[in-house]
Amino acid sequence: MTTISGHRGRQTPDTEADMVTIEGEWIEFKFFRPQARQVHLAGDFNNWRHGELPMSQLDAGYWVARLRLPAGEFRFRYCADGEWFTDYAAFGVEPGRFGLDSILRIPHKSLQMPVKPAAEKRQVAAA
Fold first, then answer.
1. pTM, two decimal places
2. Is residue 46 in some structural domain?
3. Which helix (H) or strand (E) covers residue 26, if one does?
4. I want to staple 102 with a disulfide (CB 3.0 to 4.6 A). Which of 37, 44, 90, 113 is the partner?
5. How many domains does the chain have?
6. pLDDT digits 0-9 by tens, 72-84
7. Is residue 112 part of a domain?
8. DSSP string covering 80-125, please?
9. Among the listed residues 81, 79, 80, 74, the one whose alpha carbon sits nearest the alpha carbon of residue 102
10. What percent of the chain has pLDDT over 90?
11. Euclidean distance between CA atoms 50 and 79, whole angstroms
12. Which structural domain range is residue 57 located in?
């Protein structure tokens, strides 16, 4: 499991941390916005349709969404009550059409094969 978390680039309470967690093909987006009535996730993985991926509200002001995404690099943002937010704690940010987009990098699975130790060489005595 890979977790990326941190604080926005401004002074906020310690609890205001956005977070992206990767477990295989499943990605969990977590966003802190206690006063929000609705929060959506949007990115190039859904053609930036901000009303398509609603997030569920958790206790303590957090919102969460879980998606299954293939390996690759994606851009995303959160939309809370019609206002867009960048996750500065993601894998980076870059300028997009309407502000800074957060970057999500999902690594390719690596195939790990068990390695057998080499067979021991046997000494043959000469007669």
1. 0.73
2. yes
3. strand 26-32
4. 90
5. 1
6. 999 999 999 999 9
7. no
8. ETTEEE--TTSS-EEEETTEEEEEEEEPPPPP-PPPPPPPPPPP--
9. 74
10. 59
11. 7
12. 2-106
Residue 4 to residue 22: CA distance in whole angstroms: 9
What does the longest C-alpha to C-alpha distance in the chain come to?
Answer: 89
Question: Does the residue 114 lie in any domain?
Answer: no
- Rounded CA-CA distance 10/13 in Å is 10
Could you tell me the two tokens for 74?
């994606």
List Cβ neighbours of 6 (8 Å cut-off, separation of 6 or more).
Answer: 17, 18, 88, 89
For residue 115 the two structure tokens come to 């390695």
pLDDT in tens, 4-35: 443 333 323 334 455 899 987 899 999 999 99
